[in-house]
Design goal:
The protein is an alpha+beta fold and 352 residues long. The protein has two domains: 1-235, Rossmann fold; 248-350, OB fold (Dihydrolipoamide Acetyltransferase, E2P) (Beta Barrel). 26% of the residues lie in helices and 32% in strands. The protein has nine helices and 19 strands. The strands form four sheets. It has a six-stranded mixed beta sheet, with helices on both faces. A hairpin with a 6-residue loop joins strand 1 and strand 2. Helix 3 (104-114) crosses helix 4 (119-132), helix 3 runs parallel beside helix 5 (148-160) and helix 4 crosses helix 5. The longest helix is centred in the middle third of the chain and has 18 residues, at 178-195. The chain starts with a helix and ends with a strand.
Amino acid sequence: MKRMNQAVDRSARLQLEDLSHRYPRTGEPALSGLSLSVEPGELVAFLGPSGCGKTTALKVIAGLLRPTSGDVLVDGRSVLGVPPESRGMAMVLQKPLLFPHMSVEANVGFGLRMRNVSKDRIGRRVGTALRQVRMEGFADRRPNELSGGQQQRVALARALITEPRLLLLDEPLSALDANLREEMRGLVKEIQREGGYTTVFVTHDQEEAVVLADRIALLFEGGLHMYDKPRAFYDRPASRRVAGFFGATNFIRGWARNSAVETPLGHLKLARNAPPGDITLTIRPEAVRLEGGENSFPARVTEVAYLGTRVACSLDAAGVELQVALPPQARPHEGEEVTARLPAGSLWALEE
């Protein structure tokens, strides 16, 4: 625990204040008024589709791009006038970009050699960094003798050896196959937790963001649409667009009054008050129940698909289509008449 506390003490607090950036040729804003903070030792994922501005934001933080407006602060001080190599940050890219003529040991120690660190100290720190990424026995190998996952581990070791106060990861796992990607997620999370590195991780993969991040910043068209803990994106999405990006498929229009909503499915009670007037409710497929009780109504099964770990089921209820995720042992049949229930605690009122 003491080791972790010391690591967090070395980590930095990152603040982005009203950050905007336009690329000269396009004129369109790649970033628009992005404001958020990342606490010391926290891992935040910048998530969104291609072209949403997440990599642009990372480059601005690193000093590779200067923002059109706004500020980047590290521990309360602006770093806009500080060159990239003096910001106390390390960056790992999608491609490892290792020097092909150098050994693993030489690649990892390169940054320290450029800083004129003594040979003995470099050797000790290279050994520590390779142990962190579980590559102790590969010091003498060349990059072309490594797998893609091993090369990315070396790139991560090269970043860690500089003892960064901020670790910036730009889709470092996206080029790996599924099994390697899952393995590397676990390694990244373990290293980040043990070292207490303040980390910004760019990804377009929702699952990756949920698995790794303490908080997720979801970006669309250069703007921040939601910044919260992973679970909130499923349970309390900020908008229909956010809900859809995280796989929500059930949307029910209605008229709200206090903690109840009149819908085509009938009178639905909510666990919390909703703003009065026209409203859209959402509920995750796995939260829908095929049973009676409060918020229940008749429905007909229109489609069934067995997916191994679950059964995907489509319902038609008063013209409203609902998707349901059932346990694998469930045996609904197409055309079957059922009773469906939407638990009040799982219904969420969306902003349009």
